[in-house]
Automatic annotation (TrEMBL):
Belongs to the FAD-dependent glycerol-3-phosphate dehydrogenase family. One of its GO terms (molecular function) is glycerol-3-phosphate dehydrogenase (quinone) activity. It comes from Deinococcus arenae. The keyword Cytoplasm does not apply. The keyword Flavoprotein applies. SUPFAM superfamilies: FAD/NAD(P)-binding domain. Its cofactor is FAD. This is Glycerol-3-phosphate dehydrogenase. Residues 20-374 form the FAD dependent oxidoreductase domain. It holds the Pfam family DAO_C. Residues 406-497 form the Alpha-glycerophosphate oxidase C-terminal domain. GO terms for biological process: glycerol metabolic process; glycerol-3-phosphate catabolic process. Gene3D superfamilies: Alpha-glycerophosphate oxidase, cap domain, D-Amino Acid Oxidase, subunit A, domain 2, FAD/NAD(P)-binding domain. Keywords: FAD, Flavoprotein, Glycerol metabolism, Oxidoreductase.
Amino acid sequence: MTTDPRQAALTAATTPEPWDILVIGGGASGLGTAVEAATRGYRTLLLEAHDYAKGTSSRSTKLVHGGVRYLAQGNVSLVREALHERGLLKRNAPHLVRDLGFLIAAYKWWAAPFYGIGLKMYDLLAGKLNLQASRYVNKAQALARTPTLKQAGLKGGILYFDGQFDDSRLAITLMRSLEDHGGVTLNHAPVVGLIKEGGRVVGARFRDDETGQEHEVRARAVVNATGVFVDDIRRMERSDVKPMLSPSQGVHVVVDRRFLPGDSAIMVPRTDDGRVLFAVPWHDHVVIGTTDTPVPETSLEPRALPEEIDFILRTAAQYMDPAPTRADVRSVYVGLRPLVKAAEGTDTKSLSRDHVIRISDGGLITLTGGKWTTYRRMGEDTVNRAAAQAGLPERLSLTAGLKLHGATTQDLPDHWKVYGTDAEWVQTLPGANQKIHQALPYTEAEVRWAARAEQARTVEDVLSRRLRALLLNAQASIEAAPRVAAILAEELGRDQAWQAGQVRAYTDVAQGYVLR
Ligand SMILES: Cc1cc2nc3c(=O)[nH]c(=O)nc-3n(C[C@H](O)[C@H](O)[C@H](O)COP(=O)(O)OP(=O)(O)OC[C@H]3O[C@@H](n4cnc5c(N)ncnc54)[C@H](O)[C@@H]3O)c2cc1C
């Protein structure tokens, strides 16, 4: 067993000296804000209730994109900003972002010119940070890129380029970057109350979920970046506050790579009910989604409705041959969109995807909305507001040019790439050639690394977000859980009962990702 790194972080977090900025929530928004604050030299603490990216930030479509759909809606400034951020992220985290071709298949004569014009505009809005330019492709070229595209009636298509990434790995990379720049960050540490003095929010109470002990921390500015849970924190300040969110859920299914064996994704610009659908190659599998279904309440583990799965598979079958069926689905995952409420009766598809920063009378700064692609910009805007509000010395943002932890352009094989420059260290640990399951690419060394260097505390932290086993093959991940629990127990100094409890808890969660 090595020394448990959590103790040092806990001691640092609970120092009596007030923090400049306390960030509540360790998803894209919170991590982006905390990295922004720490790199400007502000003393920064981040508290995450469960694990980094446990919420929506591990359940995205995995695109670093301007959003072709928002262009169709005429939201040009949002698209321009996102395309700019796409370019920055590719520069700053080349180990996590890659260019990917997206094919819009044309089965009608007018479709290629129609989408082609829009995508030229998309290229132009990206300016000098554009990836490859979009172009027309004929039927043979389309099939060379996406061999399982339905051939009957296919005229050709448009090929355009966007970025693709690994969402929870970016979250872990941001957490490491935060630590690299002197920030303190704790997971399994839910905020359970806010501290108020003279009507102002001056700190928070959090619980260390490993001991049950509560602690108080003070801060000059408190940022609420809890995704679909922002209203819970806002209610800690004022119980009668009106909710700002109107969440909707998006479902994805994951199938084997043989359903999309080429080097490009398929983009369906308009499904039967007016949505966009992607089939995207990811970690040697294919992610297909998504849906947009308003939900009455928030949950940490939202569940797909049968009609959402049917919709995805039915739409995929219109474009793919062979088409995946229910029996081919390796995993189903569901994310909640933190959409900012509009007037009564508005459809969630048309609500803002832009971010919103709201400051309460007591000074609580709430950041929500937006998307993964623009996390850096959201962080920059939030820290500008927080610093002004807390009277912190003004300091320039550095993150546009900040290389994230492990950044390298070296081309490492398959899943090792996400570790960047850390890959060589991971490979020195015991078990670098020992897989955790024959159907998964991951090794025992990575489990040890997750515990030693990446704050993994539970089997779920490892199998869902340090490794992507839960999303790639939920059943295989359940079978791997006992071995992962045993390695973690060795690393963290836990007993047999802990291991059994971990396997039970993980199995409970992962069963929800298996399609029956
Ligand atoms: C289906 C879907 C697909 C998407 N696809 C894309 C895409 O391809 N590209 C893209 O750019 N964007 C995409 N997005 C948008 C993007 O994923 C989200 O905007 C982003 O992940 C939201 O991050 P967040 O930090 O605001 O919320 P979250 O990721 O939900 O993070 C909030 C965190 O706060 C924590 N928390 C809650 N309560 C407390 C508490 N009391 N104390 C401490 N912590 C707490 C939670 O545990 C959670 O980890 C997609 C969204 C959805 C829903």
